[in-house]
Specification:
One of its GO terms (biological process) is galactose catabolic process via UDP-galactose, Leloir pathway. Keywords: Carbohydrate metabolism, Isomerase, NAD. The protein is α/β, with parallel strands linked by helices. About 40% of the residues lie in helices and about 15% in strands. It folds into two domains: about 200 residues, NAD(P)-binding Rossmann-like Domain (Rossmann fold, 3-Layer(aba) Sandwich), CATH 3.40.50.720; about 110 residues, Alpha-Beta Complex (UDP-galactose 4-epimerase, domain 1). The protein is built from ten helices and 14 strands. β5, α5 and β6 form a beta-alpha-beta unit. The two termini are about 40 Å apart. About 45% of the residues are buried.
Length: about 325
């Protein structure tokens, strides 16, 4: 029976990946330093190692103890804006941490890894629909660190290709992850739009739209939003494929294909929560592109990627989890 170690498994996305493994009868092991994760997100009976990826010996020990088939690597410092102010911290967590993880995997003989990358590797793409062949041009230390993570996997795979234990890998890139697969699992990021809007509504504040004069159908930015439970399913599909020896692409976009505007999100928020409001309208923020949307066709072909949830579902499940957490 296979066992997969999930780094960052006590975080918002990681906890949903853990649940997706459980739902498919695969045993997960959670590794998390709880710097942004929550111990209560780890299901009862699931092994939990509270450790940082900077503690390589402890990671290797966990891989050996549980006979890990592979790793889903989600742990990292994920705040793109803050990474500009804290580049060294970002690189230490995301690059040094990934190097340590790959060293621990090599020592323990663990040969499969699914890497949680980011659409931040694209920066501000000059195309209406981002594909895996769109040029990478990250604009923050966070985006750069994720791209370096992809390079590390590719380099280690080449280095071990002729050995008895070649590294098998794929990287998943995605934009805005929202919603909840369970009322007990919520997004606690201080930087993401959904929790910011819901927190404002709960506190009686009026949410704000930054920029209403973009060249989009309603004048507000269009972004790619995907439901966290849909995302989790494809992480497990990637893990299964690697374990079975199926050939995968080095990178996949988990994209919606069409995107949602900020104004549409505000309208859905008012409808779902029952809190009627007219968002404040502020000027554009510098550096915000009018539209960033990715194609998910390649992932749909190989990784059971589907948009199973509507915008109403995304807002509704996020609202349920927000209410349950307060």
């Amino acid at each position: 029976m296979s066992t997969w170690l999930v780094t960052g498994g006590a975080g918002y996305i990681g906890s949903h990946v853990v649940q997706a493994f459980i739902d498919q009868g695969i045993t997960p092991v959670v590794v998390d330093d709880l710097s942004s994760g929550h111990a209560e997100f780890v299901p009862e009976g699931i092994p939990f190692v509270q450790a940082s990826l900077l503690e390589g010996a402890r990671i290797e020990a966990a891989l050996r103890e549980h006979g890990a088939t592979g790793v889903v690597h989600l742990a990292g410092f994920k705040y793109a804006g803050v990474s500009v102010e804290r580049p060294l911290h970002t690189y230490t967590q995301n690059v040094t941490g990934t190097v340590n993880l790959l060293e621990a995997m090599a020592a323990a003989g663990t040969t499969n890894i699914v890497f949680s990358s980011s659409a931040a590797v694209y920066g501000t793409p000059d195309t209406d629909l981002v594909t895996e062949t769109t040029a990478t041009a990250p604009e923050s230390p966070y985006g750069e660190s994720k791209l370096i993570g992809e390079w590390l996997l590719a380099d280690q795979a080449r280095a071990t290709a002729s050995s008895g234990a070649p590294l098998r890998h794929t990287s998943l890139r995605y934009f805005n992850v929202v919603g909840s697969g369970s009322p007990r699992l919520y997004d606690s990021s201080p930087h993401n739009l959904f929790p910011l809007v819901l927190d404002a509504l709960v506190a009686g504040r009026t949410p704000r739209i930054n920029g209403t004069d973009y060249p989009t159908p309603d004048g507000t930015c269009v972004r790619d939003y995907v439901h966290v439970a849909d995302l989790a399913v494809s992480h497990v599909a990637a893990a299964r494929a690697l374990e079975q020896g199926t050939s995968l692409e080095p990178v996949y976009n988990l994209g919606s294909g069409d995107g949602v505007s900020v104004r549409e999100i505000m309208q859905a928020m008012a409808q779902v929560t029952g809190i009627d409001f007219t968002p404040e309208e502020a000027p554009r923020r510098p550096g915000d592109p009018a539209r960033i949307v990715a194609s998910g066709e390649r992932a749909a072909r190989d990784l059971d990627w589907q948009m199973r949830h509507t915008l109403t579902d995304m807002v509704g499940t996020a609202w349920q989890a927000r209410q349950a957490s307060s």
